[in-house]
Design brief:
The chain is an all-alpha fold and about 400 residues long. Helices cover about 70% and strands about 0% of the residues. It has 17 helices and 4 strands. Helix 6 runs antiparallel to helix 7 and helix 8 runs antiparallel to helix 15. The mean pLDDT is about 90.
Length: about 400
């Protein structure tokens, strides 16, 4: 009887710990269907994380020390903002990674629980995507399509092929999830279906047609693999097969990649590239204030900073500049930005971290920061949940295995 009660208590405790994670993913779905309800569910998840962290009373010392220095910097830049409403919105967004990182430390001894949960979520998304493909082919308007007032809708697609989204609703997040799962499964899964899971991970990543995710994968697999020549040869071989089998599609993909390179790097005719110009020319030790540049609040409340720096939107009406780091450095300055990044990477300051854990942490941070260079992933709770939740559990799981 006592053993049964103990099992029930353990199950309830694990469900309690995972409750905020589930809420965050539910909010991602609701974002497309009932946006206001999705926001409420997201904040319920974040508040739950704060409550669990306080209730468990577990906090990383390094993170707390850096956070103590970061608080006055954020407060200062709150009060120097052009608008308290804009500053309040952005202050909340700055707290997203902070809350999730503290929550990750609360789960530091729950690596297997997180791994098993994400493995189930792995299959849920694959199954959902198969259903999405079937319904799409039948002409069904899916829940994540961008429906316009006149009844028309936009499908997330590349040259007629629908990008995979699963239950996450956003192809880029879907690809990011399977990118990280590939390396986590490759490192920690010891079962006989490892090769199958790795292939499914790659299928999810490439089906998303997320250029950022695919480039990140190629860079990481090249850096960490001992068989670099074989990998290069393999990709050249696959590319040759693609070119000869589907020459028209191959040309379209090549032109799309070339266009993105010109738009964001070589020619810089985009708000993203313009943001880095502003960042290079106008970053001071202290910033312009929260909500002043880059983020949705700066656009919604009409930040005057855009006029001051003659910001060029290149004729587009955008909700953000779609890149995170210029937003961070301009709003809170060099001191605040470096403190904020240092806080995000505070788990790495732990004295003893195994080589295997360092490898996974390097992958997580590189993937997250690379994505943030072209998006607002560091403000997106979905991205943060599938990335930062791993950091402390990975560190402590490796330590426990070494001791064993």
């Amino acid at each position: 009887m006592n053993s049964i009660l103990s099992i029930k208590r353990d199950t309830l405790d694990k469900a309690f710990l995972l409750f905020p994670v589930i809420l965050i993913f539910i909010s991602e779905i609701l974002h497309f269907i009932f946006p206001s309800i999705g926001v409420a569910v997201k904040f319920l998840g974040l508040i739950s994380m704060v409550g669990i962290s306080i209730l468990k009373g577990k906090f990383n010392t390094n993170s707390l020390i850096i956070f103590a220095f970061l608080i006055p910097v954020l407060i200062y830049h709150y009060f120097v903002s052009f608008s308290y409403k804009a500053a309040t919105e952005e202050l909340v967004r700055y707290c997203f990674p902070i809350v999730i990182l503290f929550y990750s430390y609360t789960l530091k001894d729950q690596f297997k629980l997180i791994f098993n949960f994400f493995l189930v979520f792995f299959f849920i998304n694959l199954f959902a995507q198969i259903v999405n493909y079937i319904l799409w082919q039948k002409g069904v308007v899916l829940w994540f399509f961008d429906t316009h007032e006149n009844g028309s809708y936009t499908i997330p697609s590349v040259y007629g092929f629908m990008r995979a989204t699963g239950v996450l609703g956003f192809f880029s997040l879907f690809g990011f999830f399977y990118l990280l799962m590939f390396f986590i499964i490759e490192t920690y899964y010891k079962g006989r279906f490892k090769v199958v899971l790795l292939l499914l991970s790659l299928s999810g990543l490439f089906a998303s047609i997320s250029y950022k995710g695919i480039v990140t994968f190629l860079v990481l697999i090249f850096v960490f693999s001992k068989k670099k020549l074989q990998i290069i040869s393999g990709f050249i071989f696959l590319a040759a097969i693609l070119v000869f089998s589907f020459p028209d599609k191959a040309l379209e993909f090549y032109e799309g990649a070339l266009l993105r390179t010109e738009l964001y790097i070589s020619e810089g005719n985009s708000a993203r590239a313009e943001s880095y110009r502003v960042m290079a020319n106008h970053t001071g030790l202290l910033g312009e204030g929260l909500g002043s540049f880059g983020g949705p609040a700066s656009v919604d409340y009409g930040s005057p900073f855009y006029r001051e720096v003659n910001f060029n939107w290149f004729g587009l009406k955008l909700g953000t500049t779609d890149t995170y780091f210029p937003h961070l450095f301009i709003e809170v300055g060099l001191i605040g930005a470096l403190l904020y990044i240092l806080f995000l990477m505070s788990p790495l300051l732990k004295k003893r971290i195994s080589v295997r854990a360092l490898r996974i942490l390097g992958i997580i941070y590189f993937a997250l920061f690379f994505d943030a260079a072209f998006s607002y992933s560091l403000n997106n709770t979905g991205y943060l949940m599938v990335a930062l939740i791993w950091v402390f559990p990975v560190i402590y799981y490796s330590q426990q295995n070494e001791k064993a």
